[in-house]
What we know:
mainly alpha; globular; 3-stranded parallel β-sheet
Amino acid sequence: MAFPVLSKLRHLLRLTRKVHSSKRLLCAGDIKDEKGRPSTCRVFSGIQPTGVPHLGNYLGALENWVSLQHQYPSVLYSIVDLHSITQPQDPSQLRQNILDMAASLLACGIDPERAILFQQSQVPEHAELSWVLSCLTSMPRLRHLPQWKMKSKQKNEGSVGLYTYPVLQAADILLYRSTHVPVGEDQVQHLELAQDLARIFNRQYGEMFPEPKALLSTTRKVKSLREPSAKMSKSDPYSMATISITDAPDVITLKIRRAVTDFISEVTYDPDQRPGVSNLVMVHAAVVGISVQEAVSQARGLDTGAYKKVVAEAVIQRLTPIREEIHRLRSDMAYLETVLKQGNHKARELAAPVLAQVRQRVGFC
Length: 365
């Protein structure tokens, strides 16, 4: 009786090796040229330097970043170290985390010839524009943003930096006159603040900033392997809950084998009733590049134990080249520093004239 299952498993493993690299993004308001391509659009996004990203970061954001650099004529990706110090940081660890994040982004496919990859703190125009925008923002507006509510409760009280960092986020976006921002659903309200501030500034000082639009990924959030009601997170106290993109194959296999599922052996997709199994289906579909319906169809005849092996193999196939490239880049810190230095210079070339106009309109010049 075991032979049909093993045959099915081998067939499914072969199918998982076929990866579709293109992901469609939901994009409202694209400006097209005469050939139907985005023309005057500019994409901006940032990521905190919290070390090596996990599988949720990769599938939910970084994979889309790679696609966007091929779709848009102007793309900027920032390692937002100014944001990171809203929480206590060890300076030496932060310096290493910045380089580790640069290595991770490059290994995932960010091309510094197609996208500007830079370190936020090395472009001082971010902080100055943030101050100008903070003077256009009310305290009640910031108080109702979801992350302030969540993080301030965790710490009983939050810092001024934590309270105002959504304004710095808005400055990050508007400083480059960005038209599109890839965001998750939990960041939409923060993007709305950037849209509001663009309107307020334009109304008070004259038209200058476009209202940035959201690029929402079609990939669902990857959930914790141990608590599938919560998203995958580096801060999860359970080491088995999160897959790092540098995890070795045996570690990935162990984590997925121990992933929480349920007592039903059949593989189905029902996030409300079967969150653990549905999370595995979503991960499988995302790393292979198929729909969740197709993933479920391919898993027909397998129980959840056998299906976990399929998912683990698919994740390993996807992450192994990335892990190996990160290790290679970590051994060449001079190259990483050069990439960031060049990106910083390019970002400042774009940021400086925008801030000069802001200063003139506000009355500083």
